[in-house]
Write a structure and sequence with these properties.
Layout: H1 2-24, H2 29-43, H3 46-52, H4 58-66, H5 75-88, H6 95-113, H7 121-145, H8 150-179, H9 191-196, H10 200-206, H11 212-221, H12 229-243, H13 250-267, H14 276-300
Helix pairs in contact: 1-2, 1-5, 1-7, 1-8, 2-8, 5-6, 6-7, 8-12, 8-14, 12-13, 13-14
Length: 310
């Protein structure tokens, strides 16, 4: 549930950023289509999209990312997954959490599905903001009312793991796109990546320049920004320690060794000495490590996905 919630909140924010970006770049179709390609790679799969659509066009792409049943990461699908996960774990979460998610699904989510397409950008922005507000409310409820025991810490692992993966995906996607520009990471601007990660305000309080290299280093290695990969990994390490009180148990040793090696790998990165290709390779490797850790965690605790009912 926590992974779906984090994914939905992040994707809703990314879509809001890109819809606003599209309005600001009105008349520059090539520029905002390039950004839509990056958003597609971050939030879904370009290959799967092109298997169902002839070309990347704004209205079909919006429909695919928000409502398509063919896209397992479409906002409508992940919202439904949150509701289903909340339903099957109702005994372990606050009752109000289930009530909030169920009410949103039965009212606002169902209402927008019945709207005539294409839906106006104003209506889409309003819906995306409602999605984010609902999930903020649920996160606040979890933090303020849940006992600090196994269900809470399992949700923490899911939340921070999803966030770390998403930050790596965003960084990798922007670097891959930037490669086509012919500029170096030091020459290119990182403002769009800061916007996607909701990091602009935090970053600008500490740094004056927004070159892509400095932005990537911040998003990967900063220990204080809540969406940085390093911050997320340390939160996962804390949660594992809380779940497994016996530091000599096989489960603790398996998981802690894996997450600790990933933290050390991130900490030892020197982006200033890397070429663009090396940066891409490193991001791919760290993303693969995160995914492998997720698989290991699921295997160790015998976790499974409940079937999602419409």
């Amino acid at each position: 549930m926590a992974r779906y919630s984090e994914r939905t909140q992040s994707n809703a924010h990314i879509l809001q950023v890109q819809l606003l970006n599209m309005l600001e770049q009105s008349g520059q179709e090539h520029a905002y289509l390039d950004h839509w390609e990056a958003v597609l790679a971050i939030c879904a799969s370009k290959e799967e999209y092109l298997a169902n659509y002839l070309a990347i066009r704004v209205n079909p792409l919006i429909d695919y990312l928000l409502f398509s049943e063919k896209n397992g990461n479409a906002l409508h699908v992940t919202l439904r997954a949150i509701r289903e996960n909340a339903r099957v774990t109702r005994d372990s979460i606050p009752t109000e959490l289930w009530e909030i998610q169920n009410a949103f699904y039965l009212t606002k989510q169902q209402a927008i599905l019945t709207r005539e397409r294409p839906i106006s950008l104003i209506e889409l922005q309003a819906f995306l903001q409602e999605v984010r507000k609902t999930l903020w409310m649920e996160n606040g409820l979890i933090e303020s009312t849940m006992d600090r025991d196994l269900p809470f810490y399992f949700m923490q692992v899911g939340k921070w793991l999803e966030r770390a993966e998403k930050t790596l995906r965003m960084t990798l996607s922007i670097v891959e796109q930037q490669k086509l520009s012919g500029l170096s990471l030091l020459e290119d601007d990182g403002s769009f990546l800061l916007a996607l990660t909701a990091a602009r305000e935090s970053y600008m309080r500490k740094h004056c320049q927004t070159n892509l290299l400095a932005v990537i280093r911040y998003l990967v290695q900063d220990e204080h920004f809540p969406c940085s990969v390093m911050f997320c990994l340390k939160k996962i390490e804390e949660a594992i320690t809380a779940i497994e009180h016996d530091s000599l148990s096989s489960r603790f040793l398996t998981l802690h060794t894996s997450i600790r090696s990933l933290i050390l790998a991130i900490n030892h990165l020197d982006f200033w000495q890397m070429t663009l290709e090396e940066t891409m390779t490193i991001m791919e490797e760290r993303l693969s490590q995160c995914i492998a850790f997720s698989d290991t965690f699921s295997t160790v605790y015998h976790l499974y996905e409940p079937s999602i009912q419409p």
